[in-house]
Amino acid sequence: MNVSILGGGAWGTTLAQTLTDNGNLVVIRDINKEFVEKINVEHVHPFFGMSIPSSIRATLDLKETLDFSDVVVLCVPTKAMRMVLKECNKELTKPTLFINVSKGIEPETSLRVSEIVEEEIDEKNLMGYVALSGPSHAEEVILRKATALVAASKNEALACKVQALFSNEKYMRVYTSDDVIGVEAGGAMKNAIAIVSGVASGMGLGENARAMLITRGIKEILSIVLALGGKMETVYGLSGIGDLIVTASSLNSRNFQCGLKIGRGMTVEEAMGSIVQSVEGVRAIHAGHEIGIKYNLELPIIDEAFKVVEGKLSAKEALHNLLSRSLKTEKYW
Ligand SMILES: NC(=O)C1=CN([C@@H]2O[C@H](COP(=O)(O)OP(=O)(O)OC[C@H]3O[C@@H](n4cnc5c(N)ncnc54)[C@H](O)[C@@H]3O)[C@@H](O)[C@H]2O)C=CC1
Ligand SMILES: O=C(CO)COP(=O)(O)O
């Protein structure tokens, strides 16, 4: 089938290869002319430089991309998501299935991408929505290394459609889920904890500290997912703990790297500015902090991380605050 991808960066172009491997025709829309040329003329991945199938086409033209199919994969940074969806809504002429692979919650509204899609896309243009998420560094998927994802939708048939679209027996296995909230919120919040984990490493703390922050971070992700109406079992799955494992201790993770740089003394702006690809975790820390206030949640790690990224506290002071909290019994729910 024909598939349109919005955002031809690290992940979008990698998924274009998977969709092409599975026998589909893909058009990517990106706003970066250089990326479009790399894909169309050199047939290489714009970030990783390796060859990609020559049938993948890229364009700067949104209308051409939307006209190409009735399946659109959203793969732009979540800070651009609302704007991109507004532009799409003006150009759409038919009911379209939106598959979102971007990971974030809008800090100003605490809305997940599915909710932003519902706000910005007219009902007549919205065939349905599926969130596709899980532990999947583009650096490995582009090399066709074995990976598993989860496709979540309120509509089971659409989740199955996306499962079939992306799965192949060589390297990609997709599960389905009905828990859109859990998949979206878990996928967004793991980036916040990945930054914290990177900060700890950058400060010169050891693996014990990282394990502590990741494990107690899971408790905070769980609190947020449950408060938003998601399921506990989803947090224990690919889009939750699975993605946290891959992100919170890997140099392939832009969020971990960003934290590493902050922990070594860079400001948040310097750290973000030094990484060319999207870093979603700082916005996720803001979103998590806001959700904590709204639902009266106890989120000590996210709240201390918020003070650090706001420049109100050093990472060392934040660590001291966490270690000097009142002693308690270990509980996860
Ligand atoms: N890189 C990875 O391994 C994975 C990334 N993701 C998620 O996918 C999303 C995108 O990440 P990456 O592809 O890694 O980021 P990236 O920074 O490599 O690519 C983003 C692309 O979006 C384009 N873009 C930005 N604003 C746009 C707009 N207004 N209209 C159209 N295109 C626009 C940029 O030019 C860039 O090519 C993020 O939310 C990330 O968390 C999810 C799974 C894996
Ligand atoms: O979401 C990802 C892997 O599943 C990518 O993580 P980073 O954005 O931290 O690189």
Descriptive account of the structure:
The chain is of the alpha/beta class. It folds into 2 domains: 2-180, 3-Layer(aba) Sandwich (Rossmann fold), CATH 3.40.50; 181-323, N-(1-d-carboxylethyl)-l-norvaline Dehydrogenase, domain 2 (Orthogonal Bundle). It is 53% helix and 14% strand. The protein contains 16 helices and 10 strands. The chain has helices at residues 10-21, 33-42, 62-68, 78-91, 113-120, 138-141, 156-166, 180-202, 207-228, 232-235, 238-247, 254-263, 268-273, 281-295, 300-309, 315-323; strands at residues 2-6, 25-29, 57-59, 71-74, 96-100, 105-106, 111-112, 126-133, 147-152, 172-177. Strands 3-2-1-4-5-8-9-10 form an 8-stranded mixed sheet, with helices on both faces. Strands 6-7 form a two-stranded antiparallel ribbon. Helix 4 links the parallel strand 4 (71-74) and strand 5. The longest helix has 23 residues, at 180-202. The model has no long low-confidence stretch (mean pLDDT 97). It binds 1,4-dihydronicotinamide adenine dinucleotide and 1,3-dihydroxyacetonephosphate.
